[in-house]
Design a protein that fits this description.
Blueprint: H1 14-27, E1 31-33, H2 34-52, E2 61-64, E3 67-70, H3 71-77, H4 85-89, E4 99-101, H5 116-129, H6 134-144, E5 156-158, H7 160-166, H8 172-189
Helix pairs in contact: 1-2, 2-5, 2-6, 7-8
Length: about 190
């Protein structure tokens, strides 16, 4: 497998995305299939956008052949991130074939980046989809996530406004702009205008 190493943007909350992934790996028994993990992380972000008007990870989304995916979270899962790997590695071990293991057993106290509201969304996502096979889960996203478009072997960006629109939210563009404004604020606070 060819790996394309990419620089992850400074606004991306690596530790939080690692904890979201670790939550699902823990629920799955200590390791989780990459395809299944990518669907669960996306579906949790989507549910959060529906219920609370903002995603948990704030990651960019793309349509890929097996459904919608969180871009930078997948890069970490695949070992393709050029920076902050040590933060990811606090929670997630090195990928083995198609499985990603926890770096070590975790407790809820370890998930300090996640609010109670985040954890509620993650728990609901797990309960809804825990018994669905990874390929059936991918198929489910094709049918029930209308923001996904078949990329025919490639990938197509999914903007936040499209997700909000598909969720039936008022002012989807304004909601998407709020996410961009949050990213800018993170960069500004980090001194990276």
């Amino acid at each position: 497998m060819v790996r394309f190493i990419v620089q992850i943007p400074e606004w991306f909350p690596t530790r939080k995305a690692a904890q979201v992934t670790a939550f699902f790996a823990d629920k799955a028994g200590g390791e989780i299939n990459v395809l299944r993990a990518t669907k669960l992380v996306y579906l949790a972000d989507r549910l959060s956008m529906d219920r609370r008007l903002h995603p948990i990870t704030g990651d960019n989304f793309v349509s890929m052949p097996f459904g919608p995916v969180n871009t930078y979270t997948l890069r970490y899962m695949n070992g393709e991130a050029a920076n902050r790997q040590e933060i990811w590695g606090e929670f997630i071990g090195e990928r083995r074939d198609y499985e990603i293991p926890l770096a070590h057993p975790i407790t809820l106290d370890d998930l300090d980046e996640l609010s109670r509201s985040d954890l509620k969304i993650l728990e609901e996502t797990w309960e809804t989809f825990k018994d669905i096979d990874k390929y059936d889960l991918a198929e489910w996203t094709h049918k029930f996530c209308p923001e996904w478009r078949n990329p025919h072997g490639s990938s197509i960006p999914i903007d936040f406004a499209t997700v909000y629109k598909r969720l039936g939210k008022e002012d989807p563009i304004e909601l998407a702009e709020e996410i961009q404004a949050e990213r800018s604020l993170v960069l500004e606070l980090a001194g990276q205008h």
